[in-house]
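Subject: design request, 192 residues
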């Protein structure tokens, strides 16, 4: 299994659970964007597609090469959740087949008052169901999106939904450390 760490605007700092998961487990790999402070949707989507397309499908006994094993799990936070939805709406079928699932933590509202003005192209959020299992995780006091907004994204994307209580933006400032609850949620998604 390969886990692609997909941070949001500004990247995930050393105290962020994404960074800690990456340090603790060699199967977690951060997908580096060229500009964390001034994200452009098309560039971020292209970077994700390049990373996914570079991974060969796992051979599954008895399966054709077109239906090989999906072994990439996307672990997205904040703005990267919107990137995943956009990528899934335009990605080639061969890339989509490689995805085992997506953990989508604290999706931001691009029309909300706290949305970063330096992020471009994220206003039109795809509303089609994602073609792989997914779980949207939200906090009741996230300054970047309401719980209702996150629940709507989950419905649109065909995702399971988890309300984890009042954890702010579920980031380094939330004081979660390695966020064991998040690992439990991720493991449940992977197990299906």
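Subject: RE: design request

Done. Sequence follows.
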């Amino acid at each position: 299994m390969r886990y692609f760490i997909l941070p949001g605007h500004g990247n995930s700092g050393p105290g962020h659970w994404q960074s800690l998961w990456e340090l603790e487990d060699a199967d977690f790999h951060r997908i580096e964007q060229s500009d964390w402070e001034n994200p452009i949707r098309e560039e971020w989507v292209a970077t994700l597609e390049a990373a996914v397309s570079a991974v060969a499908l796992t051979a599954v006994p008895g399966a054709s090469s077109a239906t090989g094993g999906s072994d990439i799990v996307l672990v997205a936070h904040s703005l990267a959740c919107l990137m995943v939805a956009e990528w899934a709406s335009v990605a080639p079928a061969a890339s989509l087949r490689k995805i085992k699932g997506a953990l989508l933590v604290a999706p931001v509202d691009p029309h909300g008052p706290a949305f970063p003005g330096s992020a471009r192209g994220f206003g039109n959020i795809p509303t089609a169901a994602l073609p792989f299992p997914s779980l949207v995780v939200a906090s009741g006091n996230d300054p970047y999106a309401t719980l209702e907004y996150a629940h709507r994204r989950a419905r649109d994307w065909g995702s399971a939904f988890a309300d984890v209580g009042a954890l702010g933006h579920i980031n380094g400032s939330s004081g979660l450390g390695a966020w064991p609850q998040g690992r439990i949620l991720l493991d449940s998604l992977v197990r299906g």
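The two ends are 14 Å apart (CA to CA).
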